[in-house]
Design a protein that fits this description.
Oligomer: single chain
Strand content: over 45%
Number of domains: 1
């Protein structure tokens, strides 16, 4: 796959409490807002069920601003909870450049961003990570920036961004900027922009990414990943036995 080999980077998602979030933000009470977000983040990670979403992607590679490669594909994303409680994410490409994806072989993709639906919450809102960041709140906007290192601080120095909340205190939009050289070393995006939308799973509403745009800067190269997510639903797996091979086959419903 050469210089166009697929890259895996990690994106994060978040859910917020609706109760009193707007009032706390309006008052500029950062401590109250962050404590509430941390509690809701913990609950979110514990209750998110197995689910799938469809993903429509345009991935582009440019060299010195000149287009080198443009790929379109559609994939199915599965987020599954493991016995230890952790969430894992995998994807399978179903359509590539307007045709059904082959069952075997490699597909050229300039950039692929993986992990956003499974990770649970942005690291800058998780309780044990909040000491790693500096925050400021202005209306419905929360700005954050890495402020130091420590045993739980694994974000790149120089990282900064912001989150926008709606009137109910739910996530609308988030952006993250990282120093390109350092981001490349850690296999992260240099820039990520995410729009969020409510999705009901098992009777509970979660905020999941509806649109993701990410950039990966590498010297004179810029790889971009632009994805829209839809058709999210619960994932139920059933296991049957193939009479010929005696191997279990997993089906989703």
């Amino acid at each position: 796959m050469g210089r166009h080999s697929a890259l895996s980077v990690f994106l994060l998602l978040v859910a917020f409490a609706k109760s009193d979030a707007q009032a706390a933000t309006a008052n500029g009470d950062a401590t109250t807002v962050l404590q509430r977000m941390a509690r809701q983040s913990a609950e979110y990670r514990k209750t998110l069920p197995n689910f799938t979403c469809d993903e429509n992607v345009v991935s582009i590679a440019r060299h010195k601003r000149k287009l080198q490669l443009r790929i379109e594909f559609r994939a199915t994303i599965r987020v599954l909870r493991q016995p230890d409680g952790q969430l894992t994410e995998n994807f399978s490409i179903t359509n590539y450049m307007g045709k059904p994806a082959p069952e075997a072989g490699q597909l050229v993709i300039p950039a692929y961003v993986q992990g956003g639906l499974a990770r649970g919450v942005p690291s800058f809102f998780v309780a044990e990570k909040q000491s790693c960041y500096r925050y400021s709140i202005n209306g419905n906007r929360i700005d954050y920036a890495v402020q130091g290192g420590g045993p739980t601080c694994d974000e790149i120095p120089g990282t900064h961004g912001f989150a926008l909340l709606d009137a109910a205190g739910d996530m609308l939009h988030g952006e993250t900027h990282r120093p390109p050289i350092e981001a490349r070393k850690h296999n992260f995006t240099s820039f990520t922009s995410v729009d969020y939308a409510p999705v009901v799973l098992n009777g509970k509403t979660y905020r999941l990414p509806s649109h993701l745009y990410a950039e990966i800067a590498e010297g004179d190269w810029l790889r971009t990943f632009d994805a829209h997510y839809d058709s999210c639903k619960l994932f139920h797996a059933t296991v049957t036995i193939d009479p010929e091979s005696s191997k279990p086959i997993e089906d989703s419903k």
